[in-house]
């Protein structure tokens, strides 16, 4: 008799289990660490020792409520609660490695223009020619080309990281993360734009 009464409960549990969804959220802390690794490699500065990204602990269950409810109720609640899955950021692919190498080689040509204040980092993480008067006439076409190529590779990098991780919808968040980290990892003396578009010097 007890088995007959429990049968609908187990059937309901089986149906609900098939409806459980996994919410993969954008791993902001892991994305910042990945961005720092790439940016510091491009800038040619030593890598920092990283602490693992911390996940938010799950709230502790209320022991009083746990003891007051039957097991089958707890199972039902577990079945209908969406599961959250943390994701890591993979920054390894042939395309990513190629873009990193290109950006690292180009940085050696861009660095004097950063130091002169001719080139700065825009609020969206792209490069901008801040003061063309600081560039010799013979170098102006070259610096314009370097900036255009760098911006193209940065956009391609963000798209490729999102693609490799199976979440193309993350591209805007990856771009925003890199935009902050390009500035935060920049040496003192370089110029950058704040959120309002004003130029400031680190």
Which properties best describe this structure?
202 residues; mainly alpha; two-stranded parallel ribbon; two-stranded antiparallel sheet; 7 helices; elongated
Q: How far is the first residue's CA from the last residue's CA?
A: 76 Å
Write down the secondary-structure element order. HEHHHEHEEHHEE
Low-confidence residue ranges: 55-59, 61-66, 79-85
Number of helical elements: 7
Radius of gyration: 25 Å
The overall average pLDDT, rounded, is 82
Strand line-up of the largest beta sheet: 1-2
What does the overall shape look like? elongated
β-strand number? 6
Give a brief outline of the structure.
The chain is mainly alpha-helical and 202 residues long. It has helices at residues 2-17, 28-43, 63-68, 71-80, 94-116, 140-164, 171-184, and strands at 22-24, 83-85, 119-121, 127-129, 191-193, 199-201. Strand 5 and strand 6 form a beta hairpin.
